[in-house]
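Problem statement: downstream parser choked on a complex file, so we are re-checking the raw output for the zinc ion run. The parser issue turned out to be on our end (a line-ending mismatch), but while we're here, posting the original submission so the record is complete.
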Amino acid sequence: MILAAEDGAEIAQAENLAARWPSVRFSVGVHPHAAGKFASSPADAAETTAAVIASQPLTRGLGEIGLDYHYDFAPRDVQQEVFRQQIRLAKRRGLPIVIHTREAEEDTFRILIEENAHEVGGVFHCFTGDRAMAQRVLDLGFHLSLAGIVTFPRATELKEVAKMVPLERLLIETDSPFLAPVPHRGKRNEPANVVHVAETIASLRGVDATTIGEAARANFARLFQPGYD
Ligand SMILES: [Zn+2]
């Protein structure tokens, strides 16, 4: 589960979720959409995140953090600084990062490289780039997570990405409540639908869905060290 560090109501729900589903783990961060709140002091974004990490022992990742130049909800220089500050926090805490990047490929890679983010590694969540970008992700040592978009008939380039990612770098997700996969398009998405993502990737690669599921589970365990298996 991914939590917004600046959203107290969401943070409060973490306790509830963990009590109901003992295998749940959390990633916490200031999303680029919310970076504007920290325009006058980007370091405060890392402090806010650090405070939530300290209060939630099941935190195993830092994110979503990154850059979103599609919506541009926060000024780009502020997004970049909030991103940097949180990468530094992740390195101090030894936590992998969960990256949100949209229409900001060059700046995202530049910052990851300048900040030596490979030292903690992590995942490009809800990856929608092309094969060239996927290769950059892999070259940097990061994982790549595919969501329901890969099930869309017109997502031909993303289907090629799904075939090229080494199994040991692949994660799957739903991005609920958004992006419901085929055959649930137009409905509210939910975590159970991740099975459709796995099935689609499996058929593209000519393997069975269990292979994809087991690989994703093992990769998740290695990356986020949930401690339940
Ligand atoms: Zn995102």
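For whoever reads this later: The first strand starts at residue 2 and ends at 4.
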